[in-house]
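Reader question, answered in our methods column.
A reader sent in the components of a multi-part assembly and asked whether the whole thing could be modeled at once rather than chain by chain. We filled in our standard form and ran it. Here is what they sent:
COMPLEX SIZE: two components
ENTRIES:
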Amino acid sequence: MTAPLDVPESASHAAPEAVAAGAGRTAIQGRSLGQIAWMRLKRDKIAMTGAGIIVFLVLVAICAPIIVKLFGHPPLEFHREMIDQETQIPKDRFGGIGWDFLFGVEPVWGRDIFSRIVYGARISLLIAFLATLLSVGIGTVLGVTAGYFGGWVDTVISRAMDVFLAFPLLVFAIALAGVVPDQAFGLSGDTLRVSLLIFIIGFFNWPYIGRIIRGQTLSLREREFVDAARSLGARGPYIIVRELLPNLMAPVLIYATLLIPTNILFEAALSFLGVGVRPPTPTWGGMLADAARIYTVPHFAIFPGLAIFITVLAFNLFGDGLRDALDPRGNR
Amino acid sequence: MTENEPLLSVQNLQKHFPVHKGLLKRQVGAVKAVDDISFEVFKGETLGLVGESGCGKSTTGRLVTRLLEPTGGKIVFEGRDITHAGQGSLRPLRRDMQMIFQDPYSSLNPRHTVGAIVGAPFRIQGVKPEQGIKKAVQEILELVGLNPEHYNRYPHEFSGGQRQRIGIARTLALKPKLIIADEPVSALDVSIQAQVVNLLEDLQNELNLTYVVIAHDLSVVRHISDRVAVMYLGKIVEIADRKRLYSAPMHPYTNALLSAVPVPDPRARADRERIRLTGDVPSPLNPPPACRFHTRCWKAQEICKTVEPPLEELAGGHRVACHFPENAPEVPAGSAGTPATA
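And here is the structure of the entire assembly that came back:
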């Protein structure tokens, strides 16, 4: 404790509620479970570091055009003058890293690696976030339905989950990406490829969330507050939306956060195989694929590899911290 | 509904849970949780329903409030048969019949504020009180002894006794006529139990409520009930008004239960004759034939194993299901008609 203070008379008679409420006695605000979890999360330094990196990456992705304008060259612009024409590798030491080209230049075409990484962040994060959103949407709806209604509804949805989980996703993605033409569904080019990827990754990953939500719903269904709502005359939709869903938000958030790095890696894998977003649009996986062929220039592979690694690590650390913060044991 | 008609009448109520086995899920047996019970509850009185764990009393509570559907028998509430009524037609009735739940920790949604929990009945039933839901909720909170300023607090910020009060407040929101209290104080400390029981009594006097209190603590039931029904393995073995049940119990099982109530005074404890039952409670999957208590009863004879004793009225308002009741009057009381309350 600190040095003795001159405590005014009123403070010694302060009621416990006023102390707990913090500011003033005018309106006592309770601390919701969410607020308590947030306080716990803030104390977790590692999780906060992960969160910081995520925020930084999202900002980079959003402000990509500005950043590239200020610090780099357009990502598709060739800079053959930096390349030694015989060996096809950058002339300068360290692969052309300097104030002009922050991460150096690519071999062969001489494109600015820095701006390609920055734009690649856009693709990776966009696809990962939207695919996760799709998975979470489908998974939550079907998981809650299966868990709450039981019976044949549960059987049908659970078998569907088994089917989706057994799907050879990578093979299917390669096949589909190879088959779809350049123009379809009213979209074309990059937009089409990105939408396709989001659909493939998101649509086939829903059982991951679905199974977890179904399990949580099964146990929540037996809690007495559901009986209480039913004894008041509440119907299924009311119970699902107002009683069950608020309690499901915690696992949804945790597993969504942990699903994102999986999706980032998946998109990188697809780009690496050449079935993701088509070149010359920069993607981290695509850059790794190019780097694999020209392995004499190490920095070409290091930067995209490091980018993927740091992103995935940040999400995993944050997701773990989130899971600890929302741990039910602490919520009593 | 006339003065003499019971508010709630349960006749031959039955709930069998089927047991399925095998790939085709054939029914191989049934858990006879509630097997042919009958009782009435009159307006303004408190009926206590006691028994061991697993005797079917909580199931009875859920059947009466129609959270479960009976597999047999009849439930009549305010003169209306609600045994197999659909959930739609039950909804308006739910305003008059409410339930207090046992576990104060799981009967409140941890994500809702107290205001949302106690205000839920208004929202679900579409009732708009004059002064607004918030004011109505705060009034009820005061009625059960909670600070109305705690409207925005969450259940985890309260103690067990306070949470049970919140549950009671939720029950009272729509001013019900009948309240089924399913072990309302079992999860609380003894001193808090006393507070909550007293609160229930005060509310009954103030709001003219009718209670069915399900409990396994006989001393609590003794304090709050007007009449008491004793259940064993899905059947009611004795119903009587409180005084008569506690002073002159007739069924051997009731005797054993009463002798098991803890006595605080060590000297009185030594004087008391303690009846110990041998054996375990049989499984409701396969209850003993005829009188269900005969496997543990010290008075069991041949007839107890072959003929099921009916729930008969032996003294005024005192009904027992036993072939050899204790404390039975020499001449059976000739009271005809419905049993009178004490």
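What stands out: The first helix of chain B runs from residue 57 to 64. The radius of gyration of chain B is 21 Å.
Send us your own complexes using the same form.
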